[in-house]
Amino acid sequence: xxxxxxxxxxxxxxxxxxxxxxxxxxxxxxxxxxxxxxxxxxxxxxxxxxxxxxxxxxxxxxxxxxxxxxxxxxxxxxxxxxxxxxxxxxxxxxxxxxxxxxxxxxxxxxxxxxxxxxxxxxxxxxxxxxxxxxxxxxxxxxxxxxxxxxxxxxxxxxxxxxxxxxxxxxxxxxxxxxxxxxxxxxxxxxxxxxxxxxxxxxxxxxxxxxxxxxxxxxxxxxxxxxxxxxxxxxxxxxxxxxxxxxxxxxxxxxxxxxxxxxxxxxxxxxxxxxxxxxxxxxxxxxxxxxxxxxxxxxxxxxxxxxxxxxxxxxxxxxxxxxxxxxxxxxxxxxxxxxxxxxxxxxxxxxxxxxxxxxxxxxxxxxxxxxxxxxxxxxxxxxxxxxxxxxxxxxxxxxxxxxxxxxxxxxxxxxxxxxxxxxxxxxxxxxxxxxxxxxxxxxxxxxxxxxxxxxxxxxxxxxxxxxxxxxx
Length: 471
Ligand SMILES: [Zn+2]
Fold this sequence. Notes:
This protein is an alpha+beta fold.
């Protein structure tokens, strides 16, 4: 792609800010790991900062966070508003303070940190990702993005570079939606789009989101305090593992997200009639046999339309070996690059479910649990990430990728511009214990992310005083 905001050291905005001249400010990281990476840093960092922002340190922190889990045997499950959430927030806050940030936990349980810019009170460039996980998760999805963000702030703080904006890191408490079945609760709160009706959502034990906030020590009546005003923000950048195979196939460590695919999720219930397993076929209303036909229909319909559909959760009632299933509840996650295409396929699926249920004497009910439109990344911020990748990974034309996975940026886009850096992951595997990243790729990502921030800074006039207290 083209680079709309290639940094220009000669621009009036940056002429008096030598530390932001490029490439002079580049290369605070440890030893070169990628061909084409820029050489010796101009601003030497203290050895402890170089050490704790190295790829090996970030990977060690991923391992440390992975220990906060509700599953045994090294499996990871860490969900919203739990003791594990509280513990990883505290750990992240420690690392944020070490990196020079002031820290707070916002009204929705997101862990935040802030490094002031050249003058206090400036609007903030937010770097972030999430610390919650799916069940049996990997240790990098979301987590690595938070740690990369902290490392970038650490380096910029240690180098004493005055930025024309504040830098904030947000570690979102809920992105995956594992506990309450609704994704992006943390980032929706930050964007000011949290729907108070969601407080009645319940987890698998019947605990409401409202009660979970209270137990966590937060006031569910004051969630709106987590919302950020658009004028308090410069933009949002997120580094994340790719969750797809394309960077690996192209033999590139890093890429740029073009668009985050829109996703809709549904809870579908198929009702039949429970009965003894001796009942003849022509007298049965088998909800599981019907649900099975529906699930394979969903797969073939989505395949034919070229989009992605997943049934990842299914419960059978009464779930006994000698009883015909009377009710089945399952989830559907449907995502596509274009919302119109996705909605058209959903209409086809509901028509087919109706036909299948009629033929089998079953009934069904559908409840939408999530609906996020596709989100395009900002050309301005994409350009900064592109500049970062080009300068550090030596990739003159970084790869553009559609994100088929949802991310916090989808919610944050309601309040400010967003862009994302993708990091190659082995086999494109995520949401699984086999999730894996290579240290040189993490190193390249941290360098590129740092350079993206400095590139944005170089394109932004250095203010003399803030307009107001904006935070
Ligand atoms: Zn994620």
